[in-house]
Write a structure and sequence with these properties.
Elements lengths: L3 H11 L4 E5 L2 E4 H17 L7 E5 L4 H12 L3 E4 L6 H11 L3 E4 L1 H7 L9 E5 L8 E5 L5 E2 L19 E6 L9 E5 H15 L6 E4 L6 H14 L2 E4 L5 H10 L5 E4 L1 H14 L8 E4 L6 H11 L4 E6 L3 E5 L13 E2 L4 E5 L13 E6 L6 E2 L3 H7 L6 E9 L5 E6 L4 E3 L2 E3 L1 H8 L5 E11 L3 E10 L8 H11 L8 E4 L13 H10 L1
Parallel strand pairs: 1-12, 3-4, 3-5, 4-9, 5-6, 11-12, 11-13, 13-14, 14-15, 26-27
Antiparallel strand pairs: 1-2, 6-7, 7-8, 9-10, 10-20, 15-16, 16-17, 18-19, 19-21, 21-22, 23-24, 25-26
Amino acid sequence: MNSIVEAVYYHAQRQPERTAIFFEDRAINYRQLYNDVEDFARGLLAYGVQSGDRVALLLENCPAFVVAYLGTQLAGGIVVLVNTQYRQGELSHILNDAGVQLCVTSAAGRESLQHLAVPTLTTLVIMDEAKGPASWRTIDLASGADVNAANAHVQSHTLTLPTPEAPAVIGYTSGTTGRAKGALLCQRNLTSNIAAITTAWRWTPGDHLLLTLPLFHSHGLMVGMHGTLFNGASVTLRRKFVAADILTTLHNDPTITLFFGVPTMYSRLLAEARQQGIPAHLPRLFVSGSAPLSAQMFNDFEHTFGQRILERYGMTETIMNLTNPYEGERRAGTVGGPFPGQEARVVDTQTRQPLPAGESGEIEVRGPHVFVGYWQRPEATAEAFDSNGWFKTGDLGWCSNDGYFTINGRARELIISGGYNIYPREVEDMLETHPDIAEAAVVGLPDSEMGEQVVAVVVAKAGHRPPSATDIIAFCREQLASYKKPRQVVFVDKLPRNALGKVQKHLITRQLHSA
């Protein structure tokens, strides 16, 4: 398959009545899905979208998202994914940086966009999520008027399936340091990666995924939705994650075989299971990613649900890089090894030379899944690759003798105190074994004597008496080398997180500096 669009076309021809997407009270089969995609693509062409034009998607989870995503690519456009939680500053940066010409959104999204200054943006396509993907109208931003004439001419445009090298999607990095950069992926990046995932996780047409992850993120879209459509499988799509709903759905629908989540979702499922009990039917595979899964959470889930979560590692620029095995040991605290057809290694952060097993450095990856480059940032792109095509992930970690990678944190989050390298993940994992601590984040702050000092930001467990800072420091001193223990402990009600549950350490550091 040269593209995900082609995969949908293929399945629409061979199994047209098979349900692709279950959503609320609707069941959309592959024939209807592809017909909607074609109609949307012709509509875009009628409105003047040309090959290479950037089309932003600002939509909640719904079938209309899938139709707009695939329809844009079928029309030759490049999809720009936009987090629905973004506000004026973030929206303005992304839409201007990508030079977006058209934005597909909802009535609520229109309110967020109408006051932005984006010179290239001329048109809004308003999708009616309640009525389904076929219900949409177009607004000319210059006049504010609805434009409906193009619908009469949609059949006059010839459609061509995307080629492997066609630019497909721009996903913006989380922007934890500086402004977010747009990672451009072409169709072969998408198809090669999902083919590797299919092989590694034994994905088949008979699988049924329960998907609550946001589609604006690569985990939900480029793993969950891509995998379903690539394989001709089925997905039950939810607008958002609600733990009680997930357990009830699993109990009532024995056909569900896959569930993908982030650590905070698994934490809430565990809490809910203590109230509801464990469903009689469980998926064959639970996958976790987008943020580190603690060994404690891994073990607690196995004890409660009787299954070991499969943890994997990916990023916006590369989609999926590493995975624990489907068959074999799923090792707590690790992200396994490379997917089929992909490579990974650990290098020294200074010399960039490969390191032996057990030594910590920066993880680099190489393969057909790695993105084309950062949108209109040739210098940043050149800096991100070495001369042999290895991509510098910016993530720190090490690899065991038997090929399991462990991630310690981000290169920019590495704390150097008194000449010692301190990996925040190691300290965080230790803190979260404390019986009175729910979660913790570790950052470095400037220190005149040591260069940097370790600061632990801690959330106490609900219903527990918060431990003192002295107790926490003593606890760490007993478990870790003295130089790794926190010098300060800050108590908070919750840690700042993005939409996928990843802790936003740059916000923590900013708050600590301003305190």
